[in-house]
Each structure stands twice: as C-alpha cells, then as structure tokens.
Amino acid sequence: MSQISNIMNFNEHFVENKEYEAYLTSRYPDKKMLIITCMDTRLVELLPKAMNFKNGDVKIIKNAGAVISQPFGSVMRSVMVALYELDADEVIVVGHYDCGMASLNSERMIQSIKDRGVSDEVLSTLENSGIKLTNWLRGFNNVDEAVLRSVELIKRHPLLPPNIPVHGMIIDPTTGALKLVADGYEQLNV
Q1: What is the Rg, in whole angstroms, of the alpha carbon atoms belonging to the chain?
Q2: What is the pTM of this model?
Q3: Which residues are annotated as part of the binding site for Zn(2+)?
Q4: What count of other Cβ atoms lies within 10 Å of the Cβ of residue 66?
Q5: For the chain, which domains are there?
C-alpha cells in the first residue's frame, strides 16, 4: 500500500471517530507568538513540547534551517500576515544544532539535481537568467550566526511594526534544551 493510501485510510478513521475534536481552536494564536523554525523531522513534536506550546498557541513557519534569506520573500510575507492579520505580537526564530543546512554543499546538491534528471540545459538557463544556484543553495557555517542574521533581517524590515520583540533561540534536537541568543525584549528597552 502506498504512503498516500495509508494517509487516506488513517484520515477516514480519524474523521469518523471525531479525533479532530481534541485539536479544535481558532486561527489566531492564543499566545500571540510566531515561531520560525527548521523543517527538521526531530523538531515536529519536540519543539512545541520543549517550548510548552500546544495546538492553537502559536503560528509556526518551517523552512530549511529557519533561514530568512529574502526580505520580501514568502517567509517574510508570512511574518507580516501573522503580525498584521492574525494577532501575533512577538517573533521567535529557532534554529537547532546538527542542522542539515550547516553541512549543505551546493556543488553536491547540484550534482544530485542532475543525477535525479534535471538537465544541464535547465541549469544553464537558470544561471544565464541570473540565478546563481551555488549561492541560492548555500547553507551556513554557524547556527548562532544564522539565527542572528534572520533575527536582524526581521528587526530591520521596514514593515515591522514598532515594539515587536524578535527573539533568537537554538534548540538541541536531542534533549530539547533551549539557548537564548537574542532577547527581543532587550532591543525594546534600549
């Protein structure tokens, strides 16, 4: 049986048994927080437990490495939607140790792209259009610095409302221990 068949069969029973009722909440975060974190599988359940969040408490944006690379890209658009439309009034960027983005090798990934069937012609067209794949697929060397870069990008955004604290944390993906690397309340008291 395929993964999709398994999902659909499980979902049918989930809905029939009204298991969804345990997760009913509104679209507005009860704790008025937005979390930007990594898509790492180890954080799916660990991060909310380690931060004492349950369904409905926070908005969560996940991407590779919790990295915000474009001030007007989709992640920042989601940040603005959370702040202006969904009642969030605090932001936390949460990176983690042993992150795949820390070991991302753009050349190796480009080779993998080729190995999986993307032609040299497509890659050449992208490069000739100004898209430098080695830059676009670049990771980071230090998770603390990567989190701080994303925090700074948010803090300096021209559309960020005044008095919004932007914090930075790093979580241990094994124990859930948190390290605070940027206290957004301190920036507001300066």
Answers
A1: 19
A2: 0.93
A3: 38, 40, 96, 99
A4: 30
A5: 26-104+139-189 (3.40.1050.10)
